[in-house]
Amino acid sequence: MIREQSKWSGTYDIYINGKLHETLHNTIMNYALDELVKSLQGITPNLQVKYLALGTANTAITNTDTLLGNEIFRTPISLQTKTSTGEVTTDFVVLKAEAVATIEEIGIFVGTSANASLNTGTLISRILWHHIKTDTEEINFKRIDRMVRG
Fold first, then answer.
1. For residues 35 and 25, is the Cβ–Cβ distance under 8 A?
2. Is residue 32 a contact partner of residue 48, using CB atoms and an 8 Å limit?
3. Which residues contact 74 (CB under 8 A, 6 or more apart)?
4. Sheet strand arrangement including 6-16
5. Cα angle at 118 between 34 and 129, to 5 degrees?
6. Mind listing the pLDDT tens digit for each residue in 48-104?
7. What is the pLDDT of residues 100-129, one digit of tens each?
8. How far apart are CA 106 and CA 52, in angstroms?
9. Which secondary structure element, helix H or strand E, spans residue 128, and what is its range?
10. What is the rounded CA–CA span in Å between residue 20 and residue 33?
């Protein structure tokens, strides 16, 4: 008997002023998993990545989260590249004058309803990240999504 499992993992490489600050793993929300299953049913999933959002809430993450706890800022994709079999890398940039605040959470929003307005689209990933952002920092969030055989 052949057994094969698959896994979706998401990581964030966070660069501050061009230097790698840290790498974090995220939680994939239930909605995202259900959208992937739709493709097996012949239904087109609504998972196009559109925005990275930052928030100030540090409430515990649950698999059923649909929004950030308190979204304060979002930025669109600056670059997206298929980097390997089953892998895509998406870059987002927060400029020096943007999102100057105490950041506690990061989320990725997808779908046709996602736009530049806060709390739009569907949350597929959320992580907690404590960082006091100043107006001297440009932050690049490099999100790597991998679909791998388990």
1. no
2. no
3. 51, 52, 53, 54, 109, 116, 118
4. 19-25, 6-16, 139-149, 87-94, 71-84, 49-55, 102-110, 122-132, 27-28
5. 75
6. 999 999 999 999 999 999 999 999 999 999 999 999 999 999 999 999 999 999 999
7. 999 999 999 999 999 999 999 999 999 999
8. 7
9. strand 122-132
10. 29
Q: Token pair of 4, please? A: 């094969």
Q: Is 20 in contact with 2 (CB distance < 8 Å)? A: no
Distance from C-alpha of 109 to C-alpha of 131, rounded to nearest angstrom: 20
| Closest by Cα among 53, 37, 35 to 119 | 53
pLDDT in the model for residue 8: 84
Verdict on whether the full-model pTM lies above 0.85: yes
